[in-house]
């Protein structure tokens, strides 16, 4: 019963992690990509905050439940498909950490633009492009984890 309960929690937290990431990415693209300084300054901080809370909680839950299930199943964390899944989680995590830092900076730049009644800087546009690009390896890594969890290749 414990293993099945952990599996349920693991699946729900993976849904929150992936779904929250996709939702924040789409919403962020709409807001940050609008190039409307007031929108970005106003709606950017809550996007970052919600993404931060959801992602940290879901990722920690993933690590705890996944490690616990591996321990119960007597499966080493660093071998086979599970080792690859953890590596991909690390890739997604690094992309996410960089992305959150970029979002903070973009919000700061848009707030300064609102205060000075100016347009968004070239730095903002560069950061937005990098932030947008980070969605590709992050999403690919998460899809790879789902593949590994379902098919558990050698």
TrEMBL record:
Keywords: Membrane, Transmembrane, Transmembrane helix
Superkingdom per UniProt: Bacteria
Pfam families reported for this sequence: DUF2269
Keyword Membrane: yes
Annotated TM spans: 6-32, 52-69, 81-102, 130-150
InterPro entries associated with the record: DUF2269_transmembrane
Protein name: DUF2269 domain-containing protein
């Amino acid at each position: 019963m414990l293993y099945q309960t952990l599996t349920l929690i693991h699946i729900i937290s993976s849904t929150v992690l992936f779904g929250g990431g996709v939702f924040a990415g789409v919403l962020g693209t709409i807001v940050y990509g609008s190039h409307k300084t007031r929108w970005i300054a106003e709606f950017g901080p809550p996007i970052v905050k919600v993404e931060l809370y959801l992602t940290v909680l879901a990722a920690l839950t993933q690590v705890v439940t996944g490690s616990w299930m591996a321990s119960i199943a007597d499966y080493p964390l660093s071998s086979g498909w599970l080792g690859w899944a953890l590596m991909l989680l690390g890739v997604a995590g690094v992309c996410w950490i960089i992305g959150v830092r970029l979002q903070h900076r973009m919000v700061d730049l848009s707030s300064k633009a609102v205060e000075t009644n100016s347009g968004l800087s070239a730095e903002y546009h560069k950061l937005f492009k990098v932030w947008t690009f980070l969605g590709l390896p992050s999403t690919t890594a998460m899809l790879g984890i789902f593949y590994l969890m379902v098919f558990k290749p050698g």
